[in-house]
């Protein structure tokens, strides 16, 4: 049956995954949601690889633009079909992503992102139509602003959805709130003293299940939680399917649990079976000449965490913690001064705060004040679509951000190296 009300579609274009939702503009209610892998991954798992590919040839740039737009049209068509609606019912689209994803969406040159000064070609939001992207239909489209560096529209959307507006926030200005959007491009913001500071770090795809021996996105069959009690390993998978791989939330869980069980040492080394006094030693094996811990094995597949995987987690952890420390230092704060930590990302499940503490991403107090927001960026895009003058508020928020660039700065490099080891448990 044809819907008479006007609809809108919100999109979060992630490096690893793409999420889209259909909302009713009259009620602000989400009608349905859909997602999939970003098809640009054939050009590389992370932002840097795709930027390199896009600067290598115009053909690569056009291919990546075409791939993401085809995927977006597929998601939009599916959402409308499931709601019994058509493009005629669609009044507006809005999309947010990191600077690289938004440039590739538009087919814009990415040289200014791939090389110093690492700046986007636009900072304010862009109001265009889908036809300008090569779509058959001509629907108004708003693309979120890019405040600077690798601080993108996805962080702006997350902040807006979380009411992080220093000029009009209901919360007192002395309340310090930390925002973490942990993904391939880790984006961090700090609201403190009536100001908003933001930065980004190259966390890599490991925390989204990418670039790992058995990594996968948060799809059915992905191991999403891991608990080790004594010598028993308990796995939870998405949709209850047979384990097929490991997504980001389980990567953090596994490393945290293995640290507690003394299977991994502070330096990140997987111990040998002879060094492990429990029967967990039986799960240690060698795959392609590299130590690995087996999570699941059947006649068809082997799902494990390799030594290389653990190193990828260490690199991500070091970058994220260094970024947090830089922002706290800029605001003249310490971890104990934080009143709230809001966390989002495409992990596949809600990250356990104690796991983040055990791997060294969270300080002790942060565990108690952390709150996970599922689909943080997507929720913010929805809010902007449905709120009166939502896009104007988004622009104001983006302009209020004080972007702190970290690339190549001695302070960041020193903190990053100091944070590579895991904490002593």
Structure described in brief:
The protein is α/β, with parallel strands linked by helices and 425 residues long. Among the domains are: 7-160, 2-Layer Sandwich (Nucleotidyltransferase, domain 5), CATH 3.30.420.480; 211-305, no CATH class.
Find the CATH superfamily of the domain at 7-160.
Answer: Domain of unknown function (DUF4445)
Strand order of the largest sheet: 3-2-1-4-6-5
The CATH topology of the domain at 7-160 is given as: Nucleotidyltransferase, domain 5
The counted number of beta strands is 18
Largest β-sheet summary: 6 strands, mixed
Structure classification: alpha/beta
Shape field: globular
Helix share bin = 25-40%
| Range of strand content | 15-25%
Which consecutive residue ranges, at least 5 long each, have pLDDT under 50? 167-172
N→C terminal distance: 59 Å
H/E element string? EEEHHEHHEEHEEEEEEHEEEHEHHEHHEH
């Amino acid at each position: 049956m044809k819907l008479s009300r006007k609809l809108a579609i919100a999109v979060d274009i992630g490096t690893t995954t793409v999420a889209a939702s259909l909302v009713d503009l009259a009620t602000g209610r989400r009608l349905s949601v859909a997602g999939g892998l970003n098809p640009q991954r054939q050009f590389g798992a992370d932002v840097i690889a795709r930027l390199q590919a896009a600067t290598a040839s115009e053909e690569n740039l056009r291919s990546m633009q075409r791939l993401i737009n085809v995927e977006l049209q597929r998601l939009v068509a599916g959402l409308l079909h499931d709601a019994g609606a058509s493009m005629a019912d669609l009044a507006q689209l809005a999309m947010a992503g990191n600077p690289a994803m938004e440039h590739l969406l538009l087919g814009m040159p990415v040289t200014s992102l791939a090389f110093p000064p690492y700046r986007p070609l636009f900072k304010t939001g862009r109001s265009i139509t889908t036809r300008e992207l090569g779509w058959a239909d001509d629907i108004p489209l708003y693309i979120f602003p890019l405040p600077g560096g690798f601080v993108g529209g996805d962080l702006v959307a997350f902040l807006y959805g979380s009411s992080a507006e220093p000029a009009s926030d209901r919360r007192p200005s002395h309340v310090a709130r930390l925002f973490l959007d942990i993904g391939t491009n880790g984006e961090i913001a700090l609201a403190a003293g009536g100001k908003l500071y933001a930065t980004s770090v190259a966390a890599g795809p490991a925390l989204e299940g990418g670039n790992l021996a058995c990594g996968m996105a948060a799809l059915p069959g992905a191991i999403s939680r891991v608990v080790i009690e004594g010598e028993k390993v308990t796995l939870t998978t998405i949709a209850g399917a047979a384990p097929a791989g490991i997504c980001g939330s389980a990567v953090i869980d596994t490393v945290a649990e293995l640290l507690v069980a003394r299977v991994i040492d502070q330096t990140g080394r997987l111990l040998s079976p002879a060094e492990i006094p429990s029967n967990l030693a039986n799960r240690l094996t060698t795959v392609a000449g590299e130590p690995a811990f087996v999570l699941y094995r059947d006649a068809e597949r082997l799902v494990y965490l390799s030594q290389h995987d653990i190193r990828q987690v260490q690199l991500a952890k070091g970058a994220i913690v260094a970024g947090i420390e830089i922002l706290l230092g800029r605001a003249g704060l310490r971890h104990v001064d934080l009143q709230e930590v809001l966390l989002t990302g495409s992990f596949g499940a809600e990250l356990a705060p104690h796991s983040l503490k055990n791997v060294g991403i969270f300080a002790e107090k942060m565990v108690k004040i952390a709150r996970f927001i599922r689909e943080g960026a997507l929720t913010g895009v929805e809010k902007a679509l449905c709120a009166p003058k939502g896009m104007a508020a988004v622009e104001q928020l983006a302009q209020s951000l004080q972007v702190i660039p970290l690339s190549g700065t001695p302070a960041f490099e020193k903190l990053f190296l100091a944070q590579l080891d895991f904490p002593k448990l």
